[in-house]
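Researcher: Quick one. two chains, 753 residues in total.
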Amino acid sequence: MEPARKPTHSKEQRVTPPERKHAKKIKKPAFSKKLKESFSGYLFMSPTIFTIGVFIVIPIIYALFLSFNDVQLLGGTSYQFVGLENYTRFADDKRAIIALKNTAEYVLIVVPIQTFLALLLAAALNSNIKGKNIFRIIFFLPTVTSSAVLTLIFMWMYYPDGLINQFLSFLHLPTYDWLSNPEIALKSIMIMNIWATAPFFMVIYLAAMQDISDSIYEAATIDGANWWQKFIFITVPILKPVTFFVVVMGVIGTFQLFDQSYIFSGGSGGPNNSTLTIVLLIYQYAFRSLDMGYASALAVALAVLIMVVTIIQKKFFGEEKLHD
Amino acid sequence: MNFKKWLVYLGVFSVLLGTVLTGCSNGASSSNDDSGDSSEEVTLQMSGWGSTPIEEELLNETLAAFEEEHPNINVEFDVIADQYMDVLKTRLIGGQAADVFFLDALEAPALMSKGVLEPLDKYVTDEFDIEDFQDPLLNAFKHDGKYYGFPKDFSTLALFYNEKAFKEAGLEGPPESWKELREYAEKLTVDKNGDGDPEQYGLGISKELARQFFKLKPYGAQLTNEEGKATFATDSAVQALTPLVEMYQDDKTAALPSDVGADWGGDMLGTGKAAMVVEGNWTIPFLENNFKDLNYNTAQLPTLNGKKATAAFTVAYVMNKQSEKKEAAWELISFLTGKEGMKIWTSKGLALPTRESVAKELGFADSKLRAPFVEGASYAQPWQAGKHLPIIMNNFNNQFISALLGEQSLKEALEQAQKTANDEIEASN
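Model:
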């Protein structure tokens, strides 16, 4: 857009200098043209602006409003301003603390593993192994499958005499009660989620790897670097901005864990609150207890938490741009 | 290239068109009232949860009988497949709830106190004969002296036992007390290959509060106080629940359905994974349909601390206060909970009739398998305890399982559950 506009603008200026009155006259059409242009721009964007406004911006503002109110919904809607009461309630809410702990544990375990696994898979598929296209498709399949379906299939496999335990006992390894042992239940979800999301990030890594110029590798080969050195000193540093993206998206996604633990526990977050995550807790307060004010406060707190974590990561990864 | 682009546009366009069209058709069907020339045709919406095909068939039969009697009223039954109360409450808030819907006794106190249900007293006629209902079940839907619903049916818990397994273990007749049951369970636990993983457990148990709460009363423990707060972290409650935990942990004669890859108790009994289970009368048709050759019998639950105890689960039809078709809605409720409708609905014994006259007429008290359930009704404790029971139940279930697994003592688990539940109740007020 800009390069096309610049010449016309300078042309006008070249014509106008002699008289100031003229300048005013000519500026007017330029202004209206700008208006027209921006109007048509907004017109093109209007469906998106409308959808985002109605389904994202207004709900965000409304949630902020709700988080400062005590909301009664059933049997006549009423709002009562309570200030920060909903926010100070976290401290006494044991379940909120458990949910935060579970979620943090989940993020800390899942994000590094899935990022590492994605990088490894991408590196493997980026090399010239036979049938890599088929592997790409196979690896990507879990990501395409709906997470509800995945969860149900995994639950079948996790049953005490399901596939996984049968396999473990076949290998004479200890079997576990994957679904109803509070120690294990969250880890079952972790395994499933790593398996399902690592391939998605693998594709992102793979795309970035194919952008790395061969000449760099050739130069390294001439210098006598082996495969491992090339990976560590060339591939990984060049992929740093992508890693930043993968980690940030991973953290946001894992902080928002809901559907898997909802299906696993039938909405309760059990056994013994072990699969209770923040979003599941928000759901329970919002739709089971109909405590919209407190649920909104939790949601706002989660958003702030994710933002803070993202900013910390940005500092950690340095101020690098994604597109170079 | 151009053709591809064109295809993409076509795809996007058809998706958009599709959304618009489905949006339209939804709007059309909801306003489609089919108001013909005949005297005011009314379409009633009714919501309930999904159940077995047999039950669905019976309900359809009952509704057909109603529509025959009231040709101007059509009933649309809509099944809420999952998280019934969450969906129902959301619909009530949005003004989209059905005119008539199912309500479990457990959830009734919370909804009745919120004023979203229509009190039914003014509709009741002499002909409806309110005296005919069994009192404890009727009172489950009474709030501030008003009736908000009438129980459509009820179920109690009884002991199901595998007669063949009993014979093999040299046992005769059902256990009389829980102490005896424990000894029975020991004899009934069979581990043929000796891998420490019995093929047949003595007792199939369930970890939910709904299946445990009735054990508290015989020991003098209480689930909740008058305010509806949890009060079960007492020594007497520990005493009441300890036998089950010990059977599971120490004796290893009891198993959860998930331990043996079953969905619930009926499944455990049918597949022979458990020789005894404590289940409701809904198990009888399940076993008849899926395990025809199973040789089983039922008995009243063994006594606890020398006292008889069992649980009763009941569900009522209630009316939405916002309904615009209240007269017709009452016609429906009074038919379904009336003598005629209830007789059709309970004829197969899936659930037991809450009206004494219907129970007498159907003769369940004389049926070998169903008599223990009917007898249990006289001393059963309804599954209801104030308006915070859902919170209490959630916390109990969460903690009790960890006590069963031995991660904490039963006493600790109960204290933890009670504290968390009461904190949550207080914060929500």
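Chain B has a mean pLDDT of 85.
Researcher: Thanks, that's what I needed.
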